[in-house]
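::Amino acid chain::
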Amino acid sequence: MTSHLRVVFCTHDSPTSIGGPFTWLRRLLPSLRECGIDCRVLALTHFGGTGPLVEGLRADGFDVQSVDCHERTVDDVRWILSRLQDQVPQVFVPNFVVAAYYAARWLKAAGAATVAVLHSDDAFYRAIQQEFVRGVVSQRVTDVVCVSEKLLDEVKAGVVQNCPNACYIPYGVNVPKPVTRDYAHRIRIAYVGRFAEEQKRISLVGRSLDLACRQVPGVEAVMYGDGPDRAVVSTLLEVERSDSRVVLGGVIANDKVQSELLQCDAIMLMSDYEGLPIALLEGMACGCVPICRNMNSGIPQLVQHGKTGLLVSESPESFVAAVRWLSDNPTQAGKLSLEARQLISQAYSQKKSAGEWARLLLQNCDLRPARLVIPRKLTLPKANPVLESDEKRKLPEPQWRRKIRKLRIRLGSLRRGLLKRINHSDETPGAAD
């Protein structure tokens, strides 16, 4: 099937990029290609270049153009626009790239649809809403996709005149064949995600898993992932508690996650906030019972306490009590496992999610954008400090000042050389007077 629909997705990437938005895009694009949609990618990279997302998409035959992030936001915007000038897509998805949201203004003016994606319930995505969903009309996107029901409610609550079309499309995962579990004799608990204190509360994760392994017979745990606070976890589990039964499993490729989770019995999450956690979807699809802190977005629609999982407070003792309940009530634990898997199969499958994305995008098949006109001087609105630092908006050094600076460096070098010659001449023995 061919739709003649061109869609460009933007993303960041780096050698250590892991997390929901990266996994989502890696899986979505092949599914959209099966629907006849021509998907291309523009990637702004950092921390050493491309990572699993860009490399995986290229290996799958996708057109992915990448560049290291520029020092200034405006230069990132110009790079994005220059890549699209001669072939404007019918749909442009800025995703979570700030420069791409600024670039969307010119793509919308050329006649393209521009689609925001709200991946999480945090300050960054609230600022995206403030600037590009409810902000100045020229800066607004045409559509906004929310990955959780709560995020959609927030967008609708802040509706203004000429507000973008808003819809809810959750992430999707594949649902493997079920496996048999015995909660009475062994409970293997997994954490999958970034090792970060911010949002993920990774120290709390490590302490909770360690305490459960010590206090509940037959419990073991594994932490998969990496991140900025990996050293904190290593110190906790390998130095302070060197006898811990919590194993660090490293980073696992997207296509290997479910094979690992099928060997586990529960999956845990202690975050302060989420959008719709893909790791939790993966675990529930594999029949792992979710044990989670309750939070504003994502968890309420996935985990019904006592039916599809267990909700706990932020104390390790509360987590241990939930694990002990699973061990003491293996029959009920098995029912939670089945209900969790069934929920994902019915409402959060990869096929269902990709189908909803395809329907949204294909509404724009008839758009015929004009050639993109890129101004010689790109003027961006005032920077939102939540989205970018002052450094990203600093003015370039004027050419005349750059020339003067180089001249001063050159003159300084000549002066030092001259003084060196004079000193050398004074020290050289001369003829007698």
In short: Residues 399-427 form the longest helix (29 residues). The chain has two domains: 5-172+352-362, 187-348.
